[in-house]
């Protein structure tokens, strides 16, 4: 009987030390790489990677009564709850995803909504979520990735200009000078490699 009590006591001590280690994660507003870096004792804490310097923040629907300035990018504390703004939607992993035309740092922060092929247009000096080349643009004719335009039959597809190549990631790539068969093959191979990654 005595040995059983010792086993339970050790198990309780180990469990308590594990909880202490997890609870010692980064506090709200602290730098992070993933959500596991953040203090799991805080309900609905997440690593907001949609900003240039990721930090631990409160995700959508989190209780922000105690800290109204700690909601993820795109959310504000409304009636004591982090709520995604009108330019954002509740995304997965506790972040607000940016709609078309809203600033982004990478595609993971963009909301695909009803559009199938949305990426972060990093070719712009101020990147925004946009419809990739090859994506459907009906109803969003001004939201194609730069320099693509909404053309195709009945303005329904974002297409790169004829002097550009469309890459697998939906971006437009320009070749300086005349297109040669060798350049076309090289672009095709690079596109294939990107698709395989």
UniProtKB/TrEMBL annotation:
Residues 1-23 form the signal peptide. Keywords: Membrane, Signal, Transmembrane, Transmembrane helix. The chain crosses the membrane at residues 177-196. It comes from the Eukaryota. This is Uncharacterized protein.
């Amino acid at each position: 009987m005595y040995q059983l009590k010792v086993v339970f006591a050790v198990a309780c001590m180990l469990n308590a030390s594990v909880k202490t280690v997890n609870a010692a994660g980064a506090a709200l507003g602290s730098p992070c790489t993933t959500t596991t870096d953040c203090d799991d004792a805080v309900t609905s804490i997440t690593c907001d990677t949609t900003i240039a310097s990721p930090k631990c923040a409160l995700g959508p629907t989190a209780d922000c009564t105690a800290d109204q300035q700690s909601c993820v990018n795109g959310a504000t504390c409304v009636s004591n709850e982090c709520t995604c703004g009108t330019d954002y939607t509740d995304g997965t992993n506790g972040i607000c995803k940016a709609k078309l035309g809203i600033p982004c740092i990478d595609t993971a922060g963009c909301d695909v909504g009803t559009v199938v092929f949305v990426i972060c247009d990093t070719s712009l000096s101020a990147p925004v979520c946009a419809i990739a080349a090859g994506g459907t643009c009906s109803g969003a004719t001004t939201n194609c990735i730069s320099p693509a335009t909404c053309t195709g039959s009945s303005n329904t597809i974002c297409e790169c200009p004829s002097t550009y190549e469309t890459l697998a990631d939906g971006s437009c790539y320009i070749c300086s000078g005349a297109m040669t068969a060798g350049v076309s093959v090289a672009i095709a191979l690079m596109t294939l490699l990107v698709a395989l990654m």
